[in-house]
Amino acid sequence: MKFRTRRRALTLRTRVNDSLQFNPFVFSRLFFLWALIGIMGGVLAGGYWIVLEHLMEWLAMVPGLWVIPLMATAGLLAGLVIYKLGDPGEMDLIVNNIRFKGGQLDPRNNLSMILSSLVCIASGGSAGPEAPLVQVVGSTGTWLAQRFRLRGEDLRSLSIAGMAAAFTALFGAPLGGSLFALEILHHRHVVEYYQALIPAFVASCSSYIIFVLITHTGLGPTWQFPLYTSPSLNDCFLAVLYALVGTAVGWLFIFIVRRCRGLFRSRRLPIYWRMALSGILIGTIAYFVPLSRYFGHDQLAEVLRSTFSPQFLLLLMGAKLLAIALTVTSGWRGGFIIPLFFVGAVAGLLLHSLLPGHNLPLILISCMAAINACVTRTPISTTVLLGTLTGFHSIVPVMFASLTGFFLSPKMPLINAQLGVHTDEEE
């Protein structure tokens, strides 16, 4: 049976090679693999999103104080899944493997990642689905490359293309998703993996189309921002000033995360008990500050269309920062990009409540860009992503805000693998 399967795979590769032997165009046979991983990524992301939406809708009906035992149980169940099926690792592991293992992402723990992240996110964890899907689709790219016997940069590029496909499906931004997949890996310069740019872009376009067809999401902005009118050159300088607030919140987030890592550092406590304990803490925060629950996709829209006092905004920002930190350090699965955008928007609303005469959309976008660029060190893709997600038509001030957050970020990054030094986290 194995012999027949290998023979069929070899026959397929031979036919593809033969059919493209005469090729007067720029594209090569690899184009079809880039498009294929994009299609696979769109299918995986679309199916994941539909299941996640149904689970969230069901679990959101849990009333009041019951959210605490719900999240404790969710942490315990997700921890047992990871304990039994294998630990799929975090973003540090992905970056390490791309940099130091030739781009090979291990697909063996994908089932564990899918099941545990669905439980964590749907129950109300303050982390989003982008990181789990990046691991799943990126490792699927590795698997596909191995099936077609790709080596070296071709294999690495296909893995990165899978990562880009996952980012794009969730963000709805093919260019932003492509750049983010490259930029999140960087040590000093985003062009380090420039060979993967076109593969990532092709996969992102394919993934985007499939995801939209499956989920029936619209093509417009994800969040309806206040209209940005009368742009001027002064807005670039103001964006830098507003970005200082977002950057300061980014520093605060990194500080909280590092303290929470110490809280859950003990290896003597099994992961399922650590996650159950964290579930109690996150659930308690969600009970007292309901808007801090979940990863912020829908909650951000609610915050934008509502009016809150400065005191509540300060409370919400602190509660959300702590909830995200507890989520990502205790073993709960999920990413913190969308949650950081949520925190940035809350910080912007808080700043605007103190400076009511200033431009609200510019304050919001500047704080969102700065905090994400500060924490993830992705100023280029952050600019493009926010322009797509919010419909903010003038990206020049956003560029200034993103660069402010990037250049004022801590010298020691939150994602340790971005240092460019091989660590044991991949083992």
From TrEMBL:
GO molecular function: chloride transmembrane transporter activity
Ribosomal protein recorded as keyword: no
Transmembrane segments: 30-52, 58-83, 158-182, 194-217, 237-257, 269-289, 309-329, 336-354, 360-376, 383-408
Membrane topology: Multi-pass membrane protein
Localization (cell): Membrane
GO cellular component: membrane
Keywords noted in UniProt: Membrane, Transmembrane, Transmembrane helix
InterPro entries membership: Cl-channel_core, ClC, ClC-type_chloride_channel
Listed SUPFAM superfamilies: Clc chloride channel
Pfam families referenced in this protein's UniProt entry, alphabetically: Voltage_CLC (PF00654)
Entry keyword annotation includes Transmembrane: yes
Main location as per UniProt: membrane
Protein's UniProt name: Chloride channel protein
Organism: Hymenobacter crusticola
